[in-house]
């Protein structure tokens, strides 16, 4: 599914050069549930951004489904993100002025050749998967944190991506809600075969994944 | 996408209301200025009906008491003769109302139970030569017309159409304007005579023959004369001296019609120019305000824009999103504005304005406002496209 070879990411300003990631080599198989752990500032999110095609590596190659995407430009990356990648964020990133159903439909707005009726049907299916059918006309501010994260998961899976990236998805939730979210993620992985990569600080959550890698000072240490 | 834009704008109506109000008032001002401009342009396109090049006017202010009809008529003839005596004058005539002057005479009559107003003038047999007037039917006044037992009249096409429709008005009687007056008979039709100038409204107009033995003969007020092409203004002092020699009890003012036209145009166009400048400043202010609001809007929505980019929006999609929302707000304000300004022609709140003026200026104002939106939305939209999703999603 994903193959990272000698990935390096350097952030440069006029006076400073910061190496965020160095010599990362990683293969993620299709249907795998991988967790990434490491202290704050170690480069976990940078790695996740690279794998999610939100950023490009300074050097090295990144293969997504066998396609070298490390040199792709903005338009093509946006298209790939829309079709193949779903994102779940710690702070949900819902658009507060859109109802739940409209938030979930958002990725499909940028997919060509899909009618509004199909969009709505897919969004309802996604919301059904996360058990939020009763909240479709609510606004995010009317939902609990756990419910908001479920909306974010519905938004991430609405386009049926093969790869789901979750950046500390339970970080802003209490343990019970965190477990609920983790259950949903596991179900997506087990039932749909969705490849999942999750950044987490919580060892209990990491234990529930197939494999854990650790990042320290921008390097993969385990 | 349009439904998404409408939904978003609807849900954010509080933040968009200020923009809507700003655009609405700006549109009204732009529309008003353009409507005035279109109105004047429409008037300008109509035929003037006379030529003002190389024509001069002598306006006369008599300071004595009215000496009677015979004396008035005699004075007119002597003054006309005095003007003819200078070498520069080719044709000389008298009239009560001259182009670009300040006076008008309005009379009215009843037609099929409705009052019809008409601008009136009194001119002699040479007035058409001086002013370059060419009748489209019948003829101009001739010496000897005063011997008729009716008053000869020349009317413009506008008035002919109003009274006679498609019938030929030549030889027909003019409707009575007041009891006891001699009857008037139409001897000619002219295209028009817009004494108010190019920016005046085309209206009903008629000439009566000024040379008559009528007991109501007025003191001469204006003499117009055509000079040879290229004649300089130097002759005017000599001419005033000559006129004074005839009648020193009168003040004579000599002006070229070209200069009178210039003043008349300025009188009407300067207020429009000022209004245009005010509207321009208003547009500038509104434009800067719009840029500010959109800029702030983009900054406030950094995370949202980053999210859109993360879920697959390309640079063009973000561009369309920002401009699209602005166009939705703009369209709402302009829809309200359009409905409001359409009431003016629908309720006929201002008379004598052709419908085309309203629609031309409406189209123009809508075009200006959408252009403003495009120009003002451009920079904030470009800023939005520069937002990197990785930075935006960690932006607090």
* Main sheet properties of chain A: 6 strands, mixed
Order of helices and strands of chain A: EEEHEEHEHHHEHEHEE
Largest interface: A-B, 28 and 25 residues
Order of helices and strands of chain B: HHEHEEEHEEHEEEHEHHHHHH
Shape of chain B: elongated
Strand order of the largest sheet of chain B: 3-4-8-6-7-5
Total count of strands of chain B: 10
Strand-pairing-aware structural class of chain B: alpha+beta
Q: Give the radius of gyration of chain A.
A: 17 Å
Q: State the helicity of chain B in percent bands.
A: 40-55%
Q: Into which percentage range does the β-strand content of chain A fall? A: 25-35%
User: What's the N-to-C terminus distance of chain B?
Assistant: 28 Å
Q: How many domains would you count in the coordinates of chain B?
A: 2
Report mean pLDDT of chain A, rounded to a whole number. Answer: 91
How many extended strands of chain A?
Answer: 10
The radius of gyration computed from the alpha-carbon positions of chain B, rounded to a whole number of angstroms, is 31 Å
Proportion in β-strands of chain B: 15-25%
Low-confidence spans of chain B: pLDDT under 50, at least 5 residues? none
Helices and strands in order:
The complex is a heterodimer of chains A (222) and B (396).
Chain A: E1 2-12, E2 17-28, E3 33-37, H1 44-51, E4 59-64, E5 67-68, H2 74-84, E6 85-89, H3 100-109, H4 116-129, H5 145-157, E7 163-167, H6 175-192, E8 195-199, H7 203-207, E9 211-216, E10 219-220
Parallel strand pairs in A: 3-8, 3-9, 6-7, 7-8
Antiparallel strand pairs in A: 1-2, 1-4, 4-5, 9-10
Chain B: H1 2-11, H2 13-45, E1 55-62, H3 69-84, E2 89-95, E3 105-111, E4 114-123, H4 127-131, E5 135-138, E6 151-156, H5 157-164, E7 184-190, E8 205-209, E9 222-227, H6 235-246, E10 250-256, H7 257-300, H8 302-310, H9 315-341, H10 343-346, H11 355-385, H12 389-392
Parallel strand pairs in B: 4-8, 6-7
Antiparallel strand pairs in B: 1-9, 1-10, 2-9, 3-4, 5-7, 6-8
């Amino acid at each position: 599914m994903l193959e990272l070879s000698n990935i390096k990411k350097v952030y440069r300003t006029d006076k400073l050069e910061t190496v965020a990631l160095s010599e990362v080599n990683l293969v993620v198989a299709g249907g795998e549930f991988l967790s990434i752990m490491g202290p704050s500032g170690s480069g976990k999110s940078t790695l996740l951004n690279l794998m999610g095609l939100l950023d490009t590596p300074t050097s090295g190659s990144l293969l997504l489904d066998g396609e070298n995407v490390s040199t792709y430009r903005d338009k093509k990356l946006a298209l790939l993100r829309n079709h193949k990648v779903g994102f779940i964020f710690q702070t949900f990133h819902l658009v507060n002025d859109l109802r739940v159903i409209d938030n979930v439909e958002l990725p499909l707005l940028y997919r060509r050749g899909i009618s509004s009726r199909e969009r709505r049907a897919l969004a309802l299916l996604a919301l059904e998967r996360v058990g939020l059918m009763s909240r479709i006309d609510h606004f995010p501010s009317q939902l609990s944190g756990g419910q908001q994260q479920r909306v974010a998961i519905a938004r991430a899976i609405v386009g049926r991506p093969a790869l789901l990236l979750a950046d500390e998805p339970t970080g802003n939730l209490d343990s019970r809600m965190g477990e609920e979210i983790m259950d949903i993620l596991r179900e997506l992985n087990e039932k749909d075969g969705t490849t999942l990569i999750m950044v987490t600080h919580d060892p209990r959550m990491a234990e529930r994944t197939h494999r854990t890698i650790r990042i320290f000072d921008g390097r993969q240490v385990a | 996408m349009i439904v998404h834009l409408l939904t978003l704008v609807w849900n954010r109506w509080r933040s968009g209301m200020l923009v809507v109000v700003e655009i609405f008032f700006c549109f009204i001002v732009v529309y008003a200025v353009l409507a005035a401009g279109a109105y004047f342009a429409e008037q300008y396109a109509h035929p003037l009906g006379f030529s003002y090049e190389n024509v001069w006017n002598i306006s006369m202010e008599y300071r004595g008491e009215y000496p009677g009809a015979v004396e008035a008529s005699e004075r007119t003839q002597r003054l006309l003769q005095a003007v003819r005596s200078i070498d520069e004058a080719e044709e000389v005539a008298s009239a009560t109302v001259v182009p670009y002057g300040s006076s008008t005479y309005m009379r009215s009559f009843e037609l099929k139970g409705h009052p019809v107003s008409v601008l009136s003038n009194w001119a002699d047999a040479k007035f058409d030569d001086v002013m370059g007037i060419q009748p489209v039917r019948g003829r101009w006044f001739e010496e000897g017309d005063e011997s008729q037992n009716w008053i000869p009249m020349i009317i413009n096409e506008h008035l002919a159409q109003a009274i006679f429709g498609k019938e030929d008005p030549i030889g027909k009687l003019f409707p009575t304007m007041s009891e006891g007056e001699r009857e008037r008979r139409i001897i000619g039709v002219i295209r028009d005579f817009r004494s108010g100038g190019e920016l005046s409204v085309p209206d009903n107009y008629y000439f009566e023959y000024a040379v008559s033995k009528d007991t109501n003969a007025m003191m001469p007020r204006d003499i117009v004369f055509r000079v040879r092409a290229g004649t300089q203004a130097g002759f005017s002092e000599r001419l005033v001296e000559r006129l004074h020699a005839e009648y020193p009890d009168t003040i004579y003012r000599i002006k070229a019609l070209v200069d009178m036209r210039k003043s008349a145009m300025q009188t009407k166009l300067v207020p429009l120019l000022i209004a245009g400048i005010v509207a321009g400043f208003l547009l500038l202010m509104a434009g800067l305000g719009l840029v500010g609001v959109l800029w702030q809007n983009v900054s406030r929505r950094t995370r949202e824009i980053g999210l859109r980019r993360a879920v697959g929006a390309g640079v063009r999609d973000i561009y369309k999103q920002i401009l699209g929302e602005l166009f939705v707000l703009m369209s709402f304000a302009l829809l309200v504005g359009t409905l409001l300004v359409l009431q003016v022609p629908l309720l006929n709140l201002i008379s004598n304005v052709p419908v085309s003026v309203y629609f031309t200026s409406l189209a123009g104002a809508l075009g200006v406002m959408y252009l403003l939106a495009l120009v003002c939305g451009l920079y904030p939209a470009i800023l939005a496209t520069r937002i990197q999703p990785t930075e935006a999603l960690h932006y607090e």
